[in-house]
Amino acid sequence: MPTLFVTGANRGLGLEFVRQYRAAGWDVIATVRESSPELEGLGAEIRTLDLGDLEAVSAARAGRPLDLLIANAGTYGPRDAEDAGDAQEWLDTFAVNTVAPYMLAKALLPEVREAGGKLVVVSTRMASLADNGSGGFLAYRSSKTALNMAWKTLALANPELACVMLHPGWVQTRMGGSNAPVTPEQSIAGMMRVIEGITPAQSGAFLDYEGQSVPW
Ligand SMILES: NC(=O)c1ccc[n+]([C@@H]2O[C@H](COP(=O)([O-])OP(=O)(O)OC[C@H]3O[C@@H](n4cnc5c(N)ncnc54)[C@H](OP(=O)(O)O)[C@@H]3O)[C@@H](O)[C@H]2O)c1
């Protein structure tokens, strides 16, 4: 039975990752700040991990070979961080969205190597410099752009592993809001297909949930 380690599993996309990987017969380690009744019933091994606690992130271990890491958890942070008054919130957003996923991948790397596994991070099209026609959301955008650079660097350092960044679509979660056109079920089913198909040769790619390249 393959093993998945996924962060932010109490709600939104993380919860749906757990639901669909469990339905596919995977062993799932699901991390949360606080669990939820929806997660409790899915048969995952639930662990507490606050991504703002970088010491705890660096100390994380699966305890067994890991076929797949999905660094999913993320935060919008302040909606506008355009003056120094928001500097600390901006830094906090970087800790959760950029530094923590990378440190988590580094911490779990030996177990991923053991399984010849895959390293996936949930990024966003809003990280794209080329696609940024509307501005705003400075903390979120910049933290995810930096995340992409970190993950691409991780891919180059580990050429034997498949290591990709995924844009989930604009999805109906607390972050995406109710106007989003994509359901969590559709997004996760799409990302699972993409993850299943990726090889080390595609490592470093930035893909959406339908497998299309996202511009940097
Ligand atoms: N929905 C979209 O349209 C969309 C589009 C592009 C990218 N994304 C990305 O998709 C990922 C999942 O987002 P979502 O749409 O599922 O949003 P969501 O429903 O708001 O869920 C966010 C998840 O991240 C967790 N999280 C936030 N800060 C954390 C921290 N410090 N430590 C641990 N967990 C933390 C939350 O846990 P708590 O409940 O404890 O806060 C929650 O589980 C994010 O990386 C997001 O940037 C989403």
How does this model look, in words?
- The protein has a 7-stranded parallel beta sheet, with helices on both faces.
- It has one domain: NAD(P)-binding Rossmann-like Domain (Rossmann fold).
- 39% of the residues lie in helices and 15% in strands.
- The relative contact order is 0.15.
- The N and C termini lie far apart (35 Å).
- The protein has 216 residues and is of the alpha/beta class.
- The mean pLDDT is 96.
- The structure holds NADP nicotinamide-adenine-dinucleotide phosphate.
- NADP nicotinamide-adenine-dinucleotide phosphate (NAP) binds next to helix 1.
Question: What are the key terms here?
Answer:
single chain, 216 residues, alpha/beta, Rossmann fold, 7-stranded parallel beta sheet, globular, binds NADP nicotinamide-adenine-dinucleotide phosphate
- Tell me, rounded to a whole number, the average pLDDT: 96
The end-to-end span amounts to 35 Å
Which structural class fits the helix and strand makeup? alpha/beta
Radius of gyration: 16 Å
CATH architecture: 3-Layer(aba) Sandwich
Number of helices: 6
- Order of strands, widest sheet: 3-2-1-4-5-6-7
CATH class: Alpha Beta
